[in-house]
Recover the amino acids of this structure.
């Protein structure tokens, strides 16, 4: 996955040498966990000389995209499977993704689709300096493999996850605005699998494979929605495909509105919606005409929607916003189900567990909040960050070292990153959570009477939303790992089967390999031809469709 020699196998020595050179002073290249040591193997970034901030500086988000085999010639692009962290990510496909590409069980080649040639780094916009990019300038390019899609300045950059090259292999520049959010669809059927939201409110859907085939620096073959802010001119804040919907996606905006789009409809057929009568109340308006796009507007809250996330089955949509509330909706019934307030300030990120039982949130109160869908309340607060929490995500590939296959007690591993530049890893076992007993004479738990954010005290919505609980009523958990991984504030993280990816807001990505992965790959390099690929994976996955096997 990281480096390769001519035989296509992992070169750990080269990776270690490269990391020593690029690692920032004062930062360790590993961190320890109960199950072993995570090691930094390589980094991805952008060529700083080509960045333009004419439209305002943006925070980098990263999406992990996996392209499958190219389909029959009659179909220009292929279906796909992926993961998105912005938020992090952010569709459920992300947890289905391992780090290896192609059909091989151990395809640790130097680039997607071919072995690495030591000919230097590929140039942005020119894809002809390595074997993995030589074929990208023609329509026969297969493109199969794993890619990182991330935004910096006015550009979207695409890096080959399985290459040791630090620089991206492709850049797409936007002349009218800066990209701020993006998502990749695991089930795209007509080629358009990548959606991109801009500061201007404009939205594009494109084929990732088609972008890789083109040698230019402009987006090609795109469908353009909300052109020039014709429907909503406020900033896009988060974007997501609806799981299992065959082409439906939602876009959240900074004015508290969320729009539902259908990529199969003409983006020029913009809809008009009535004014929001009460910005404090949740409301939905549908387009008058069947050909209109977007199909519907959901007014979620007063102030910005900061992040959105769908449950794995697509049944529920979680949103977090500037007003500090987590809201959970039944997406198909278009109903608010439940939600609650942060301890203080805005919420910035959210993520679902794979089984849909828990939701993580993080924000300006420096806490990681664990929300139970079954109990409809906060069941734990994670204390450990020293500044705002900017990214949270469950690790669906991790399993407890002491589990031994038993299912009596389920333990969850999740991660969080913050503006304190730290990555924190947490273990959550609900049977061990002790709820503090502090009840008033009436017998009900005591909750705080108001928000700690004075600006929003008068903006408390009504309905199924709970106020912020008192700190004495919520169990506290501590991280098992706290590690400073970047010099700049962090903006997101991704878990794959082999690694943990962290990204800072300036556009630098680090890949940390899980304990035992590198050693196992190195030990297997000499016996690859005789290895059976039907043995148990090194890390058990909660979803078994895309794991490589050793």
């Amino acid at each position: 996955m990281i480096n390769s020699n001519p035989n296509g196998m992992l070169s750990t020595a080269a990776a270690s040498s490269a990391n020593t050179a690029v690692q920032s002073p004062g930062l360790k290249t590993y961190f320890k966990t109960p199950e072993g040591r995570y090691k930094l193997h390589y980094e991805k970034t952008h060529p700083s000389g080509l960045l333009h901030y004419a439209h305002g500086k943006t925070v980098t988000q990263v999406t992990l995209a996996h392209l499958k085999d190219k389909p029959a010639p009659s179909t220009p692009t292929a279906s796909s499977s992926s993961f998105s962290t912005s938020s992090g990510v952010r569709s459920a496909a992300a947890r289905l993704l391992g780090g290896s590409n192609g059909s091989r069980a151990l395809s640790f080649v130097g680039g997607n689709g071919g072995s690495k040639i030591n000919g230097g780094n590929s140039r942005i916009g020119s894809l002809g300096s390595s074997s993995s990019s030589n074929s990208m300038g023609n329509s026969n390019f297969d493109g199969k493999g794993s890619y990182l899609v991330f935004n910096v300045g006015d550009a979207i950059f695409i890096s080959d996850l399985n290459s040791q090259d630090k620089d991206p292999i492709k850049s797409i520049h936007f002349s009218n605005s800066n990209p701020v959010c993006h998502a990749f669809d695991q089930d795209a059927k007509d080629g358009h699998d990548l959606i991109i939201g801009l500061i201007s409110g404009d939205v594009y859907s494109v084929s990732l494979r088609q972008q890789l085939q083109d040698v230019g620096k402009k987006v090609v073959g795109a469908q353009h929605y909300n052109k020039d802010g014709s429907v909503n001119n406020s900033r896009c804040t988060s974007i997501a495909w609806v799981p299992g919907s065959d082409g439906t996606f939602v876009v959240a905006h900074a004015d508290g509105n969320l729009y539902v789009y259908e990529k199969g409809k003409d983006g020029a057929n913009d809809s008009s919606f009535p004014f929001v009568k009460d910005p404090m109340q949740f409301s939905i308006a549908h387009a008058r005409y069947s050909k209109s796009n977007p199909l519907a507007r959901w007014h979620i809250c007063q102030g910005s929607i900061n992040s959105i996330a769908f449950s794995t089955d697509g049944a529920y949509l979680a949103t977090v916003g500037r007003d500090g509330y987590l809201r959970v909706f039944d997406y198909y019934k278009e109903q608010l189900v439940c939600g609650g307030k942060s301890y203080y300030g805005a919420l910035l990120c959210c993520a679902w567990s794979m089984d849909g039982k828990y939701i993580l949130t993080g924000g300006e109160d420096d806490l990681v909040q664990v929300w139970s869908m079954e109990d409809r309340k906060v069941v734990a607060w994670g204390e450990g960050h020293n500044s705002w929490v900017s990214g949270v995500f469950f690790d669906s590939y991790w399993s407890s070292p002491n589990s031994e296959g038993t299912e009596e007690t389920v333990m969850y591993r999740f991660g969080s990153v913050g503006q304190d530049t730290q990555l924190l890893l947490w273990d959550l076992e609900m049977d061990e959570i002790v709820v503090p007993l502090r009840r008033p004479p009436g017998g009900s738990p005591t909750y705080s009477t108001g928000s700690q954010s004075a600006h929003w005290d008068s903006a408390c919505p009504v309905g199924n939303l709970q106020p912020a609980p008192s700190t004495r009523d919520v169990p506290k958990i501590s991280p098992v790992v706290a590690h400073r991984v970047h010099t700049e504030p962090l903006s997101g993280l991704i878990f794959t089967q082999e690694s943990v990816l962290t990204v800072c807001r300036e556009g630098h990505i680090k890949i940390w390999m899980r304990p035992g992965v590198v050693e196992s790959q190195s030990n297997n390099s000499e016996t690859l031809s005789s290895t059976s690929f039907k043995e148990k994976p090194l890390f058990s996955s909660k979803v078994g469709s895309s794991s490589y096997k050793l």
